[in-house]
Specification:
- It is a single chain.
- This protein is of the alpha/beta class.
- The protein folds into 2 domains: 2-110 and 233-303, FAD/NAD(P)-binding domain, CATH 3.50.50.60; 113-229, 3-Layer(bba) Sandwich (FAD/NAD(P)-binding domain).
- 25% of the residues lie in helices and 27% in strands.
- The chain contains 7 helices and 17 strands.
- It has helices at 11-22, 56-68, 119-122, 131-134, 150-159, 180-186, 278-303, and strands spanning 2-7, 27-31, 73-75, 78-84, 87-92, 97-105, 109-111, 127-128, 142-146, 165-170, 190-194, 197-202, 209-213, 219-222, 226-229, 233-235, 265-267.
- Strands 1, 2, 3, 4, 5, 6 and 17 form a 7-stranded mixed β-sheet that branches. The chain has a 5-stranded parallel β-sheet with strand order 8-15-9-10-11.
- A hairpin with a 4-residue loop joins strand 5 (87-92) and strand 6 (97-105).
- It is elongated and about 70 Å long.
């Protein structure tokens, strides 16, 4: 019986597991692999080195601790996680079963892909899903943002500070009452195409442009050096959605301390809210571990 099982191998999960171990808790982290927002890097034609997300150096120290303590990690998909009497049971795809007194859910969120030719091949070669990670690399370049809602609008606003020209290809009409929309329309280096569909990301080794179908059915080739995909993301909360309270988008509801609607279960990272800030997820993971520790101390005091 573990004190705590952490589900998820991104920044929040790695940090939560490392902090729980540092608090002398019997800890297991289960993940398919180390990943989350730090799983990919960006290489550009005129850059000699890879660029990584801010916070990677700090996170790597936690990850190295888990790599050293191999008995604290288990690489596999989690197939089922559920409460059982006074503890929790976690089952993996390979048929392994583990039990713990508390859980930390850090399963992240799935980014929606474009699903067009060139996307997979050019990911990390000019195509990115994170402006925080890679936006500053495109100083003085022309870039495209694909998306309609808040994350896409924020991305276009931020990129307008670095890029020469920003093209916002919004599959839907921009909500007129959203505060960022009039700001975007006033920016001289932002061009908005509503009702636009990206058909292809072009480039041999690096992004060189996109093929777009406009709202009137015409197609156009737009030369850009970067493409930022900012379509809606889906929280990976399916494991616990039947017995944990989630919002209408499937994000696990948490209180100020990372606690969920079920005692002994805590959550952190993109499965609770969307953020591209690895340092935010590191903090949330650390907070969840601290609160799990406090919960376990309460159990110990209660049981004598």
């Amino acid at each position: 019986m573990y004190d705590v099982i952490v589900i998820g191998g991104g920044p929040a999960g790695i940090t939560a597991a490392a902090m729980a171990i540092n608090r002398r808790l019997d800890t297991l982290i289960i993940a398919e692999q180390w990943g989350g927002q730090t799983a990919y890097t960006m290489q550009l034609q005129d850059k000699e080195t890879y660029e990584v997300i801010t916070g990677e150096e700090l996170l790597s120290r936690f990850r190295q601790q888990l790599d050293y303590l191999d008995f604290c990690r288990h690489f596999d998909w989690v197939a089922k996680a559920e409460p059982a009497d006074d503890h929790f049971i976690v089952q993996t795809e390979d048929g392994d079963q583990f039990e713990s007194l508390s859980l930390i859910i850090a399963t992240g969120a799935k980014p929606q892909r474009l699903e067009v030719p060139g996307e997979e091949r050019l990911a990390g070669q000019g195509l990115s899903y994170s402006v925080v990670a890679h936006g500053a690399l495109f100083l003085g370049k022309d870039v495209a943002v694909v998306g309609t809602y808040r994350r896409a609008q924020l991305a276009a606003c931020e990129l307008s500070q670095y890029a020469h020209q920003v093209y916002l290809f919004a599959p839907e009409l921009l909500p007129a009452d959203w505060p960022l929309v009039p700001v975007l329309r006033r920016l001289e280096n932002v061009k908005i195409h509503e009702g636009a569909t990206v058909l292809e990301v072009k480039g041999e080794h690096f992004v060189e442009g996109v093929v777009v179908q406009t709202v009137d059915g015409a197609t156009m080739d737009v030369p850009v050096k970067g493409v930022f995909v900012k379509l809606p993301r889906k929280p990976n909360s399916e494991l616990v959605r039947d017995w944990l309270e989630c919002d209408h988008e499937g994000r696990i509801k948490v209180n100020l301390y990372g606690g969920t609607s079920y005692p002994g279960v805590f959550a952190a990272g993109d499965v609770t809210h969307m953020s591209e800030q690895v340092l935010v997820h590191i903090g949330e993971g650390a907070k969840a571990a601290a609160e799990a520790h406090g919960y376990l101390l309460g159990l110990k005091a209660r049981d004598g």
